[in-house]
Amino acid sequence: MANTVEPSLSSDLLRLLRRETFVSVATVREETGTPDVHAISWVYAKDAHTIFFSADSRSRIVRNLKVNDGVVISFIANGSTYAIRGRAAVEKEEMPNIPIKLALVKCVIEEVRDVMFYGAKMVSAPAFEKIYDLEAARKLDTQVMDELKRASSG
After folding, report:
1. Which residues form the Pyridoxamine 5'-phosphate oxidase N-terminal domain (predicted)?
2. Which of 18, 33, 47, 111 lies most in the core, judged by the most C-beta atoms within 10 Å?
């Protein structure tokens, strides 16, 4: 049902956000105070109230969150589109055991909103594929997701 609002992730959405998933992250641009949207896939839901994700340490996501902690994570699942609003903070500028400079970000969920417009449903989820060295991508994905899981267990 469109336009429902919950204070936390449902068990189904929690399950979906416990694997590498295409999401968009909206932050507030540090210079202008306007929305900034980013696509990422390294995301892991610790529980129904907390999501960890990773982004390049030099990215606008990280710079923006240092000034304004407001964030919206949106994704498509279960025939609908969801917007997760929360407060996010950079937990680590660099994650250990990762060969590139990636920040660890923790988002505390304030609301989960079904934002699909009335009378419609999504018929497929977005699909993506890595276009660089597939073995290197698989290795890096595994390392990052393992670090996100490790961070969420602490």
Report:
1. 15-93
2. 18
Q: Kindly report the CATH number assigned to the domain that includes residue 148.
A: 2.30.110.10
pLDDT digits (tens, 9 = 90+) for 92-109: 999 988 999 999 999 999
- Total of domains in the chain: 1
Q: Is 128 helix (H, G, I), strand (E, B) or coil?
A: coil
- The whole-model pTM stands at 0.94
Domain carrying residue 13 = 5-153
Which residues lie closer than 8 Å to 3 by C-beta, 6 or more apart? 113, 114, 115, 116, 118
What are the b/e assignments for 58-94, b being 16+ CB within 10 Å? ebebbbbbeeebebbbbbbbeebbbbbbbebebeeee
- Nearest alpha-carbon partner for 43 in 77, 5, 3: 77
Residue with tokens 């929360």: 86
